[in-house]
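Anyone up for a design puzzle?
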């Protein structure tokens, strides 16, 4: 086995002529990508497998999107004037109603509903707290009043 020479490693020169002036934003990569990628990278094998087991959800979401095309046409988030955070909160509020009605109908049990309710409410809080300034006063206030709507 060859011995290490020791000392400071030799200096390397950068590749001449290779300069990138493209920003992440120009590539369409958001400022949140790095933390999101780090979060995904930190998932355990069990969490990753659990996520992959839910691929049917992504498939169902895509089918709903495709099914809406004839009625609404393609959605362009860059030009659409709606606040998608508000839209998501409205849909989550509907999900709360539907899940509660499913208890009455006997489709799910109360304990399952409590877990579902907590997760939906957490999602609503996350959307509204972190993004309060993005859509102005159109957010549903915490007291439930309809200010700005």
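Challenge accepted. My sequence:
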């Amino acid at each position: 086995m060859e011995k290490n020479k020791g000392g400071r490693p030799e200096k390397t020169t950068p590749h001449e002529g290779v300069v990138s002036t493209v920003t992440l934003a120009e590539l369409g990569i958001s400022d949140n990508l790095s933390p999101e990628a780090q979060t995904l990278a930190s998932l355990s094998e069990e969490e990753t497998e659990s996520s992959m087991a839910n691929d049917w959800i992504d498939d169902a979401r895509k089918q709903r999107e495709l099914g809406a095309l004839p009625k609404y046409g393609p959605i362009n988030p860059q030009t659409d004037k709606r606040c998608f955070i508000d839209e998501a909160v409205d849909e989550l509020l509907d999900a709360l109603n539907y899940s509660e009605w499913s208890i009455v109908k006997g489709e799910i049990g109360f304990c399952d509903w409590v877990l579902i309710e907590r997760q939906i409410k957490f999602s609503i809080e996350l959307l509204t707290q972190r993004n309060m300034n993005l859509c102005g006063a159109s957010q549903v206030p915490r007291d439930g009043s309809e200010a700005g709507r």
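A detail worth pointing out: The chain has a mean pLDDT of 77.
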